[in-house]
């Protein structure tokens, strides 16, 4: 029991990596939450991401971009360039085109979707011995045959000279790499806060009622911290390393109709941090109608005497079967009370030894009632190590 409780609570034992940096090249610019890539007869531009530098190429499974506007599609741009190298240090690029197949001389605004999953032959892997127009599977096969096994960088590129003198211009709302969305809003300033879990940095502190974001945090340990009453409504909160929303010190906080995701290290790891919604030290409120996913450790947590939360009608989704970390969907512990009703909880499954992942986990709680919850793909749907009374119906 003591060992399990320590694993659930420890959040500061190991440092968490910050989200990836973005640099510009050529005549690219970032302003007002948008990135503009342009070209003329002699200048091109790029956005350069370091998310997967040094990782095996096989780790890359998704590339997409949200295009706000574009003029001058063609000439092989805009495109993603995936830099790769061999163990001997030979470096090359794989090109992934954004435009409409088969000629890429036109394109659409909006989200491209995952270009690596496209059945269209939009991947140029000739530089590593693959086909001029092929699929991502073709590129991976060519990379394996040529020994190009490591990622050196990922860029979004607009070339120079192709559409001169008119040039090209594309404006992007965001880019996504392996499902991690990189927006171009200014990075928030991290403020150190004295929380019940010790001093932590937060992007937003006590915003009051109706906080709506969006908040693509870069490097802060907490996304939104409440030491006083407030609420989160219809927000998109992502990228904090330890907590997405943290309600603390007796604050009444409701979190409703929001998407809280990508809470944890920038590369999913076994570090015991990454809780999407966290109530502690007498905080109380309702968590309802939210999509909570891509958390590293836990989806929703309530801990401590006088802490009370209603967890209603949320969709809480873990990573699925993984040997990296034992995740839990909803956790009530250490004297907290809760009503857990109408939630869909899935994908919390640890394949490693010793530990078990749970959809619902109760440890020394003071009183928990749960009913009408739906469970799929959890290693165990319920872990009851002291619920303190309440219905046990599922």
Cα end-to-end separation: 23 Å
Q: Please name the CATH architecture of the largest domain.
A: 3 Solenoid
CATH class of the largest domain: Mainly Beta
Low-confidence blocks of residues: 1-19
Total of domains? 2
Shape: elongated
CATH fold-level topology of the largest domain: Pectate Lyase C-like
Mean pLDDT: 90
Q: Helical content, roughly?
A: under 10%
- Which structural category do the helix and sheet elements fall into? mainly beta
Give the count of helical stretches: 2
Number of strands: 34
Largest sheet: 9 strands, mixed
Strand line-up in the sheet with most strands: 13-14-16-19-22-25-28-31-34
- Beta percentage is over 45%
**C-alpha Rg (nearest Å):** 23 Å
Looking at this protein, list some descriptive labels.
394 residues; mainly beta; Pectate Lyase C-like; 2 domains; 9-stranded mixed β-sheet; 7-stranded parallel β-sheet; 2 helices
């Amino acid at each position: 029991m003591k060992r399990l409780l320590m694993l659930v609570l420890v959040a500061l034992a190991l440092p968490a990596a910050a989200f990836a940096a973005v640099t510009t090249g050529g005549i690219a610019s970032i302003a007002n939450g948008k990135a503009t890539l342009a070209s003329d007869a002699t200048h091109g531009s790029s956005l350069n991401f370091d998310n997967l530098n040094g990782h095996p190429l096989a780790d890359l499974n998704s590339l997409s971009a949200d295009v706000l506007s574009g003029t001058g599609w063609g000439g092989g741009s805009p495109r993603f360039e995936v830099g790769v190298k061999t163990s001997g240090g030979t470096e090359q690029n794989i090109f992934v085109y954004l435009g409409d197949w088969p000629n890429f001389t036109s394109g659409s605004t909006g989200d491209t979707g995952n270009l690596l999953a496209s059945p269209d032959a939009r991947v140029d892997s000739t530089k590593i011995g693959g086909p001029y127009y092929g699929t991502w599977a073709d590129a991976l096969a060519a990379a394996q045959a040529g020994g190009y096994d490591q990622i050196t960088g990922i860029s979004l590129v607009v070339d120079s000279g192709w559409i001169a003198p008119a040039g090209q211009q594309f404006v992007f709302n965001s880019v996504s790499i392996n499902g991690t969305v990189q927006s171009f809003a200014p990075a928030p300033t991290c403020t150190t806060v004295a929380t019940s879990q010790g001093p932590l940095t937060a992007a937003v502190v006590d915003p009051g009622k109706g906080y709506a974001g969006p908040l693509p945090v870069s490097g802060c340990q907490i996304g939104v911290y409440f030491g006083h009453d407030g609420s989160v409504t219809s927000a998109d909160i992502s990228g904090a390393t330890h907590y997405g929303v943290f309600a603390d010190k007796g604050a009444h906080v409701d979190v409703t109709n929001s998407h809280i995701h990508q809470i944890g290290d920038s590369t999913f790891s076994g570090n015991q941090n990454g809780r999407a919604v966290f109530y502690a030290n007498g905080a109380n409120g309702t968590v309802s109608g939210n999509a909570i996913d891509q958390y590293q450790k836990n989806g929703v947590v309530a801990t401590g005497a006088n802490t009370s939360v209603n967890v209603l009608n949320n969709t809480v989704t873990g990573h699925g079967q993984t040997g990296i970390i034992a995740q839990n969907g909803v956790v009530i512990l250490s004297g907290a009370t809760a009503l857990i009703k109408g939630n869909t909880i899935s994908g919390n499954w640890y394949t490693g030894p010793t530990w078990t992942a749970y959809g619902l986990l109760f440890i020394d709680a003071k009183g928990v009632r749960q009913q009408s919850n739906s469970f799929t793909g959890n290693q165990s749907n319920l872990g009851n190590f002291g619920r303190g009374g309440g219905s046990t119906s599922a």
